Amino acid sequence: MLGALLRLVRFPNLVIVALTQYLLYYILLLPAFRQQGLEPALDDSHFSLLVAVTVLITAGGYVINDIVDFRIDLINRPTRVVINRQIRVQSAYWLYFCFNLLGFLIALYLSFHIECIPLANLFPLAVILLFVYSTYLKSRAVVGNLLISFFCAGVAGIVWFAEREGFKGLLGRDPQLAGHIGSIISWYMVFAFLSTMFREVIKDMEDLQGDVGANCRTIPARWGLPVARAIAAAFGLGLAAFLVYLPLSMPALFTSLGILFLIFCILLPLFLAMIRVFRAQNKEQFHQLSQLAKLIMLGGLAMLLFLAVQ
Prior knowledge:
Elements (H helix, E strand, L loop, with lengths): L1 H7 L2 H25 L8 H25 L1 H7 L12 H25 L3 H19 L7 H20 L1 H10 L1 H32 L1 H6 L5 H5 L1 H25 L6 H24 L3 H20 L8
């Protein structure tokens, strides 16, 4: 039962979401605040609650997505279907309700704790958008992909938003350091958006058979595989150009080790993935390509450890 639950909520993905926010907070923001004698809006325990809210939103999104896509998943990934096999659909709905209720209560508490009501408003907005995505936008070309990509970028953005008062104080005391941190978070948000779009189009090509059967109008289902390959490659090229431009535009942030990591752990796998976009022919090959795209996304997260902040 526990294994089925972990598969339902995509536990490894939830770990990545939490890790992203912890890295941004403890590697970038918190050391800078302490260096300048600034107090963060969220202490360790309250920041963990913010991470919990993000994880609950994401987990709820995965649950409602699997409920809605049950019949499509029987075609696209029959061996990985959990709904109505190991977890009843009624139980899945209860999980979805509990995740959202708990997340909302925590978000409401945090918004009052840091006196930031808009933080509580972001939670229902995210839940509604993910519900609309699962029930409608996912089956529409481009729009659904864009929404998920913005959501992935927002995982980093919400940390910046929650600590915006401390960041304003940092900007007043050390504009250069604040500029470096702002540049890194912005860099990662753009990376998250572009890399997610790249993988989303690949996943649509992987799921083409089931999507066509369900009359979903995804990019490959609506315009065909050649167009989908071209769109995926375009986002891959855009991501590569962005990554090459970064050390040229912000050399102070990149150590020699950071540049080597960027080249061998992100750019080379990305170019390999773009080549395989045009060579993949069957579902298994697209699945392997999707996993490679996920590794590239993890590489971008690990890149945060190699940037020279101070």
